[in-house]
Design goal:
This protein is mainly α. It contains eight helices and no strands. Helix 7 runs antiparallel to helix 8. This is YesL family protein. It comes from Bacillus salipaludis. Pfam families: DUF624.
Length: 195
């Protein structure tokens, strides 16, 4: 009987932690320029949960936010650069038809997907290892191409969670942290398995 209570309280604690972490992440993302540092902080909390069995949220979140701010801002600037180039190319492509337009759109979409996958691996690497920015970029690029099962699962998880959120908007109260937790576990397992 006591084992059942322990399991029940463990599950409720994890669910409530995901709920509060989701709220904390949303609030920390309100100034739009802090989306990547907030995401790195959330992944840092997950790392502490997995490696140290730490269940704290707020102290670790703000500690990891501060520790990973510089590197996560570089990632955010790369995204802004990519979005700026994409917007410029899409504006120009309105004047073109046919194969040229299709090729350029395919390249932009492929780069965007690769950058997104690299971002997930990069944030996971960032919170676990103390690496320089060029090494983070190189390793996240290699991981997204060489860990194909994990990479495909990342895409699948995001698609499934997006569909669930579309049909059940109530899950917004914990969907970001829950999805990020699954992605972290998947990428962390891939990273630990390789290194």
């Amino acid at each position: 009987m006591k084992v059942q209570y322990v399991k029940f309280f463990s599950i409720t604690e994890r669910v409530s932690n995901l709920f509060f972490l989701n709220l904390l992440w949303i609030v920390a993302c309100l100034p739009i320029f802090t989306i990547f540092p907030s995401t790195a902080a959330m992944f840092g909390v997950f790392r502490e949960w997995v490696t140290k069995k730490e269940t704290s949220i707020f102290r670790i979140f703000f500690q990891k936010f501060k520790e990973n701010f510089k590197q996560s801002m570089v990632l955010e600037l790369a995204w802004l650069f990519y979005l700026g180039i994409s917007f410029a190319n899409l504006s120009i492509l309105d004047n073109f038809n046919g194969i040229f337009r299709t090729v350029i759109l395919s390249i932009l979409i492929s780069i965007g997907i690769l950058l997104f996958l690299m971002s997930i691996y990069m944030v996971t690497l960032m919170v676990h290892y103390n690496l320089s920015i060029p090494i983070l970029w190189k390793n996240s690029f290699l991981l997204s191409l060489t860990c194909l099962p994990s990479t495909f699962l990342v895409i699948l998880i995001i698609c499934v969670m997006a569909a669930i959120t579309y049909f059940l908007p109530i899950v917004l109260i914990f969907v970001f942290s829950f999805t990020a937790y699954l992605l972290f576990l998947l990428c962390f397992r891939a990273i630990i398995g390789i290194i």
